[in-house]
Amino acid sequence: MVELLSERVSRIAPSATFAVKAKANALKAKGVDVLSFGLGEPDFDTPQHIKDAAKKALDEGFTKYTAAAGIPELREGIASKMKEQNSVECSAANIIVSNGAKHSLHNIFQAMLNPGDEVIILSPYWVSYLEQIKLSEGKPIIVDCDEQFQPIPDKIREAITDNTKMIVVNSPNNPTGAVFPKASLKAVADIALENDVYILSDECYENFVYGGAEHHSVASLSPEIAEKTITVNAFSKTFAMTGWRVGYAVAPEPLVKAMSSLQGQTTSNVNSIAQKAVIAALEGSLDDVKNMAKAFDERRKFAVDAFNSIDGVKCNKPEGAFYLFPYVDGLYTEKVKGSSAFCDFLLEEAHVALVPGVAFGLDSCVRFSCASSLESIEKGLKQIKEATKAL
Ligand SMILES: Cc1ncc(COP(=O)(O)O)c(C=O)c1O
């Protein structure tokens, strides 16, 4: 019988965060009050001036197709932002606007990978890198970070082969919240230069860094590194705009052109109204973003201490993003063995939803998102502490 699905699509694993959501919803449907800490999006509303710009665009009839790579005004605005905020030299010709960072990443893999090309991913990693690389017929090569979730340059060097095409770097990191210091980024970039491979730097959480940590764009480290780096970013997390779907890539011009052709034949432009809205985000103040970061910082501090007060749990203090990735393997038992079983246990016994670390490449941990109010974090951690006493 003819196969319904392609081999390509059969290779993709479903999203772990959606699986958690489905389980939590099933419990909610039975009337249980479930606290969800699985979410990867800010619990804040999009700032008003951004919404106003979208309303204005709509009222002015800005509702037609635009250039596939984005309207010139937006590409120029992003290039200016990259120069001013990230110290990355570029022009509008180096910018392509896509439907969120996820779409930028997919198009980069599609435009750069040949079958069998190897892509180094640092573990723990954000789930979609792995699946997108496989979808583009590339081969993900996983290299573990250390226990503090920092890259180990020697391990990365050892993983390089003649087939290596690029190294993916994500700082501030999802799921660990780790921020890679400038020296680590430089060490990874030097390995890329020595071996003539590219760096793909996902900087979606750049505005969420705490306690003196600093975000550095890989492409800002030297002109040679800039030439070998493709930067991905989005308005999604920074401006609490996950549903608007606007992300971008900063890349060498030939790659931008190839991705524009790809977009032109597949999705075409990003929603015209959303493009106008993010111009307002670029031009407006970052006060709302700073307030969000302040709230995440406060929640992070509380949650780290609360996790570390549970016997058998060890939680690094993340310096960025809005996730915690505590080690919970000290609580694993014969019956509750591994992060998936542990998350099922927490859902059933503590009525809290977390994402199993195995989905991000590390079964000793679970991911806890601080994108909920401090009150619900306090309540959730109390319930976790109480329930885990039985283990
Ligand atoms: C590290 C990382 N990169 C990219 C994305 C995708 O962002 P967007 O919603 O802009 O597609 C996410 C979203 O969770 C993420 O955590």
UniProtKB/TrEMBL annotation:
Any one GO molecular-function label of the UniProt entry: transaminase activity
Aminotransferase class I/classII large domain sequence ranges: 33-383
GO annotation terms (biological process): amino acid metabolic process
Keywords: Aminotransferase, Pyridoxal phosphate, Transferase
SUPFAM superfamilies found in the cross-reference section: PLP-dependent transferases (SSF53383)
Needed cofactors: pyridoxal 5'-phosphate
UniProt-listed Gene3D superfamilies: Aspartate Aminotransferase, domain 1, Type I PLP-dependent aspartate aminotransferase-like (Major domain)
Domain of life: Archaea
Record InterPro entries: Aminotransferase_I/II_large, AspAT/PAT-like, PyrdxlP-dep_Trfase, PyrdxlP-dep_Trfase_major, PyrdxlP-dep_Trfase_small
Subunit structure: Homodimer.
Alphabetical list of PANTHER family matching this protein: ASPARTATE AMINOTRANSFERASE
Family: Belongs to the class-I pyridoxal-phosphate-dependent aminotransferase family.
Protein name: Aspartate aminotransferase
Organism: Candidatus Iainarchaeum sp
